[in-house]
Amino acid sequence: MRRFLLHLKAERGARATTIPELAAAEAAQVDFGAGPVLTHESGGLLKTWFFVMTLCWSRRQYAEVVLDQTVETWLVREQI
């Protein structure tokens, strides 16, 4: 097995991962993750999500807890 894997490694050469080279303000990565379940004042449960945006050049992050993952959530925020 070891010889086979060494053969594959030599055959493939370069690593599969790359570091993107982007200028400042050119791109960001966005992700959602499951957040805590909160209790609403009415007694009902609210499922929450973490919204995380990472700027590719500086690696700075912005995170916020949101109640859904829809586009409407962000469109309403822009109008406020």
Structural notes for this entry:
By secondary structure, the protein is α+β, with helices and mostly antiparallel strands. It has one domain. 25% of the residues lie in helices and 36% in strands. It has two helices and three strands, in the order H-E-E-E-H. The protein has a three-stranded antiparallel β-sheet, with no helix packed on it. Strand 2 and strand 3 form a beta hairpin. The protein is elongated and about 65 Å long.
Question: Secondary-structure blueprint of this entry?
Answer:
Blueprint: H1 2-12, E1 28-39, E2 45-55, E3 61-66, H2 71-79
Antiparallel strand pairs: 1-2, 2-3
Largest sheet: 3 strands, antiparallel
* Class from helix and strand fractions: alpha+beta
- What does the overall shape look like? elongated
User: How much of the polypeptide forms β-strand, as a percent range?
Assistant: 35-45%
Count of folded domains:
1
How many strand elements? 3
Helical content class: 25-40%
Distance between the amino and carboxyl termini: 60 Å
Task: Round the Cα radius of gyration to an integer and report it.
Answer: 21 Å
Number of helices, where a helix is a run of at least 4 consecutive DSSP H or I residues: 2
SSE ordering: HEEEH
- What is the typical, i.e. mean, pLDDT? 82
Widest sheet, order of strands: 1-2-3
Give me a quick take on this structure.
This protein has 80 residues and is an alpha+beta fold. Helices cover 25% and strands 36% of the residues.
Characteristics of this structure?
single chain, 80 residues, alpha+beta, 3-stranded antiparallel β-sheet, 2 helices, 25% helix, elongated
